[in-house]
Design brief:
593 residues; alpha/beta
Length: 593
């Protein structure tokens, strides 16, 4: 209910007006059968008028049944006015309904986007992007459709059923028993059916989420798919999931068809019984012709709402699943800072103290008892093989995850006691696989609000200015989705330029020069040494030459500290660093030859 209340904020008042207009519309629609009854019985058949006292006095003041018989246009006028009022009420209800629905969608998507932005990195790592997108689009749309098309009708339907059954009972209590018996059966069957299909709708939604994820991954990774010739594999994978999703919906549709077939049968049975029994009553003189026509009209008006009530209950299953799925997002715990979190200078020594870390509740340790210090204003290299925990150190430093054991301090202050946003604002990061937005080069580099001059200066330092100026549109060139129009090296250098515009006291390069050649690598490092202005620099790399200029180097092996020291010290002792150095140097000499 709390999730539902959140979604209805801002739109509830529009739905309330829509419901009120719908109730008035229902009352107006009940007038026509009564007018037809009086017309048939009194104006045509000359029977005494059976009307409420106030209505009877009004008709008598006009001339009674004789006036109606002589002026049938007056009856037509009453029906026309009732139709006009009904049309105006329906127009108003539709307008407020549209306003309410779109307001609900806007509120839901705004809340979802804001909440998702505040969720911890761990939550994002555990939820596929395609499924998240599906929740923010398909599920929101399904909830909107339910409220617009079904929910607001519930009140109108209930009032219509009550009025129709009451008027039918007043006209002929015995004949109305048919409606009183069959209508509850349809409603009860719908409620039981709702419980049966809820799990089916959940299964269909989950399969749609998987399908969306596969499509999203293939669209964003189309270059990789084609580069490795995996088109057929991915097509087969998509087709298999699509078949599963289709079969799920076919099964659900079959179940829904059974439901509607039973509803059709009971509705036809109700009409048949009313016509047969009503005809017998008319022949026996227990029911006037006008009452029979009016009773039949009310019976028809009753069948529709009862069946719609069944549809609403079945649609409630879909909407309920979607609300639950949105609730899983909106009720997920957002990232929280410590109660007394306070900012502290970040241009100090960074120290990892006995840090251990693992992903998940029972996952193996990817870092185990790691301790080292990065002196302020110095360059610090990190070397290690795949899976050694290098990138995990970066995630911990940026407070995207928290250490399982130990702590990370800057100037003696635990970063867990600082606001996460503040820590990230003061740590500039360049990833090996940088993410570029589908915007211009200028917008990507200046995303943090840098001026044109700062953007150009950062691009020069990152050795990408020359490439950009050679583009036909220069800095206004659109990079495409995820930077697809740029080479790997260009993307990395644009990402470096973007990071430089932040002017942070701590900078981390996570193997972010792997896609550039050695000469460009050296130029960038020289420019960075010249322009960084005393920032603490952490360089994670597989390339030894990139690390040789660092003041100190940490070597990780299977999540543990294997070696720590200056490049000169590490080269002078046997170990992983020396081994990799000799290997890469020999390869370089062979390529040079």
């Amino acid at each position: 209910m709390r999730v539902l209340g959140t979604l209805l904020e801002g739109s509830g008042k529009y739905f309330a007006v829509c419901i009120l207009l719908g109730l008035l519309l229902t009352v107006v629609e009940m007038i026509a059968p009564q007018v037809i009854r009086v017309t048939v019985d009194s104006a045509i058949d000359s029977k005494p008028m059976d009307l409420p006292a106030w209505a009877l006095r009004w008709v008598e003041s006009l001339g009674g049944a004789a006036f109606l018989r002589a002026n049938m246009w007056f009856i037509a006028l009453i029906l026309a006015l009732a139709g006009l009022v009904a049309a105006l009420l329906r127009y108003g209800a539709n307008m407020f309904n549209a306003k309410a629905g779109e307001t609900l969608v806007k509120t839901a998507r705004d809340r979802l986007f804001h909440h998702i932005e505040c969720l911890p990195w761990k939550w994002h790592a555990e939820h596929p992007t395609g499924d998240i997108i599906q929740r923010c689009t398909s599920d929101v749309e399904r909830i909107k459709n339910f409220f617009q098309e079904q929910f607001i009708s519930v009140f109108q339907i209930i009032v219509r059923i009550i009025l129709a059954l009451t008027l039918m009972t007043l006209m002929n209590a015995k004949l109305s028993i048919v409606a009183w018996v069959i209508a509850p059966i349809i409603v009860l069957y719908s409620v039981l059916f709702h419980n049966k299909i809820r799990a089916r709708f959940t299964e269909c939604d989950e399969n749609e989420g998987v399908l969306s994820t596969i499509a999203q991954e293939n669209l964003t990774g189309v270059r990789v798919v084609r580069a490795f010739g995996r088109e057929k594999f991915e097509r087969d994978r998509f087709e298999a999931q699509n078949n599963k999703y289709t079969e799920c919906w076919i099964s659900l549709t079959r179940t829904l068809s059974d439901f509607w077939a039973v509803g059709d049968f009971t509705s036809c049975l109700q009409i048949l019984l009313v016509v047969v029994l009503g005809t017998v009553s008319c022949v026996n003189g227990n029911l006037t012709a006008g009452e029979f026509v009016s009773f039949s009209l009310y019976n028809t008006m009753l069948i529709g709402p009862v069946r719609r009530l069944g549809r609403i209950i079945s649609e409630m299953s879909k909407a309920g699943v979607s609300i639950d799925r949105l609730g899983e997002v909106l009720e997920a715990e957002t990232e929280q800072d410590a109660p007394n979190a306070a900012e502290a200078p970040m241009d100090k020594d960074i120290t990892f103290e006995n840090v251990s870390f693992h992903y998940g509740e029972d996952g193996p340790d990817v870092l185990e008892n790691v301790s080292f210090t990065v002196p302020a204003g110095k360059s610090f290299g990190i070397l290690g093989g795949t899976g050694s925990g290098k990138s995990s150190l970066l995630l911990l430093l940026c407070r995207l995850y928290a250490p399982t054991e130990g702590k990370i301090t800057v100037g003696g202050v635990d970063i867990a006691d600082m606001p996460a946003r503040y820590v990230r604002e003061n740590v500039g990061v360049v990833l090996q696989e940088p993410f570029l937005f589908s915007r211009s080069v200028q917008e990507n580099i200046g995303i943090c609000g840098a001026s044109d001059a700062e953007i150009r200066a950062a691009a020069v330092t990152a050795c990408v200015d020359g490439d950009i100026t050679r583009f036909s549109q220069g800095y206004d060139t659109m990079v495409g989705e995820r930077g697809v129009s740029l080479s790997g090296g260009q993307k990395q250098r644009v990402a470096i330029a973007r990071m430089l515009t932040k002017k942070t006291p701590v900078i981390v390069f996570d193997d972010s020069l792997s896609a550039v050649d050695t000469e460009t690598d050296e130029k960038i490092r020289s420019a960075l040494d010249r322009d960084l202005g005393g920032a603490t620099t952490i360089i994670i790399s597989h390339r030894i030459t990139t690390l040789l200029d660092c003041d100190n180097i940490l070597v990780l092996e299977k999540g543990r500290v294997s070696q720590l020291g200056s490049p000169k010290e590490l080269l002078a002792q046997p170990g992983i660093f020396r081994k990799i150095y000799d290997m890469q140097m020999s390869i370089g000499e062979e390529e040079g030859a």
